[in-house]
């Protein structure tokens, strides 16, 4: 059986037609992950016993003529900051590796399982979700499936790379400053940062309470839609995308793009008939405010660990947390006040449009031996700066769909931004783009 022969959203129907059993399929998936994981360092552990138990239940339901669920038999990966019953939630850290096992599943994990999906692996991440590279001092680097010499992005890099490598069609990630959008772009898969607060974070290890958001990765827009409906516990209404108005985000979001990204964004804008641009003021300050809030809240969350277990941190994460602890409270208060102002400015930007278009990253994935990107003529750290286009949008909390743009080289991704609560519009556009061939996940060939 070849897991590369079909996409995630096709699996439930194939199971119902009894083309194969859920058990035989998931056993193949687990074996495949075991064999190929050493190539990419995507999974930190597999969930064999749990996966097999759930697969057997699905087969039993099908044999009885009962509905096994809308996601029946679809394997999914889980970023290692979501609770999974019987597993230790490490958040990619040595510090939490000896904690007690989780007694229950995180809410989103539970919802996927209840819809018939099968958890198969926990995925690698930047320690405590603080980074854009999935370069973990304890678990190693996750490699980009499209070029093992390149970054997969982070902090949800294992979840994105797992979809791109066809380990699983769906996966869960978190996005505080771009941790879904950056790796989705670099790995060439679909990713959704839901409206802040729309999907429950219960059972996920926090990073920045006031900014944390969760969401899925998928191998197709159709798979992503099915997944989001399960995660949000509600069906999406049908959208007439011909009535939607599009514009490009200008200013900050037109600077520093690599030539291939400029071309890709221009073509996407043309496809969507985005004939003008809208510039949201003070975008650079929005990025700075997101930096400050993240650093200070992250430092506060880990203060006790920093006091007594500083040596056990990933050095890069530890240094950023120490710096965050030194930020004056007056500065943080100003950042939060600015956040409220910027959110209002974002709402104003949508007075004449429904969807805004922006690049997700400056260009293709950087190489490990050259982990830098060009910003304003200077080569700066990719690990700290890959979120140049994602961090400002984080501050507003609007939903963002990462769209994989067809390209001859390494993957590229665009951000489509909608008003709060309008994931239905984003996913409908995604399906339209996929049907027309203007967007497609870049998956390893069968």
From TrEMBL:
GO function terms (MF aspect): hydrolase activity
Occurrences of domain Amidase (ranges): 26-427
Keywords associated with the record: Hydrolase
Superkingdom of origin organism: Bacteria
Gene3D superfamilies (alphabetical): Amidase signature (AS) domain
Keyword Cell membrane set for record: no
Record protein name field: AtzE family amidohydrolase
Classification lineage: Bacteria, Pseudomonadati, Pseudomonadota, Alphaproteobacteria, Acetobacterales
């Amino acid at each position: 059986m070849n897991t590369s022969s079909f996409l995630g959203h096709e699996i439930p129907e194939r199971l119902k037609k009894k083309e194969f059993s859920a058990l035989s399929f998931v056993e193949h998936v687990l074996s495949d992950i075991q064999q190929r994981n050493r190539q990419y360092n995507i999974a930190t552990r597999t969930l064999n016993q749990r996966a097999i138990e759930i697969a057997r239940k699905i087969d039993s339901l099908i044999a009885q003529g009962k509905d096994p669920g809308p996601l029946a038999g679809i394997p999914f990966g889980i970023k290692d900051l979501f609770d999974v019953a019987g597993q230790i939630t490490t958040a990619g850290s040595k510090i939490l590796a000896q904690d007690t096992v989780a007694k229950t599943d995180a809410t989103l994990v539970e919802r996927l399982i209840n819809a018939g999906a099968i958890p198969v692996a926990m995925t690698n991440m930047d320690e405590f979700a603080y980074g854009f590279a999935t370069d973990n001092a304890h678990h190693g680097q996750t490699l980009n499936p499209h070029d093992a010499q390149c970054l997969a992005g982070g902090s949800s890099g294992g979840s994105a790379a797992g979809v791109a490598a066809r380990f699983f069609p769906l996966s869960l990630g978190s996005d505080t400053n771009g941790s879904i959008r950056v790796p989705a772009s670099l790995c060439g898969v679909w990713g959704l940062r839901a409206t802040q607060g729309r999907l429950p974070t219960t059972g996920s290890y926090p990073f920045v309470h006031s900014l944390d958001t969760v969401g899925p990765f998928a191998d197709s827009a159709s798979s992503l839609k099915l997944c989001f409906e399960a995660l949000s516990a509600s069906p999406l209404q049908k959208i007439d995308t011909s009535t939607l108005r599009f514009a490009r985000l200008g200013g900050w979001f037109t600077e520093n793009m690599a030539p291939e990204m400029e071309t890709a964004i221009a073509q996407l804008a043309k496809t969507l008939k985005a004939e003008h641009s809208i510039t949201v003021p003070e975008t650079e300050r929005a990025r700075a405010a997101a930096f400050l809030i993240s650093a200070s809240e992250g430092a506060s969350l880990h203060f006790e660990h920093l006091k007594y277990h500083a040596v056990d941190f990933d050095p890069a994460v530890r240094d950023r947390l120490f710096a965050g602890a030194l930020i004056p409270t007056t500065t943080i208060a100003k950042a939060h006040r600015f956040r409220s102002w910027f959110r209002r400015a974002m709402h104003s930007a949508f007075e004449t449009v429904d969807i805004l278009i922006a690049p997700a990253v400056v260009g293709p994935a950087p190489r490990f031996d050259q982990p830098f990107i060009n910003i304003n003529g200077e080569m700066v750290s990719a690990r700290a700066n890959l979120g140049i286009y994602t961090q400002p949008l984080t501050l507003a909390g609007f939903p963002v769909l990462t769209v994989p743009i067809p390209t001859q080289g390494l993957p590229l991704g665009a951000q489509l931004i909608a008003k709060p609560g309008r994931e239905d519009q984003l996913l409908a556009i995604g399906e339209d783009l996929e049907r027309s061939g203007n967007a497609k996940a870049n998956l390893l060939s069968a």
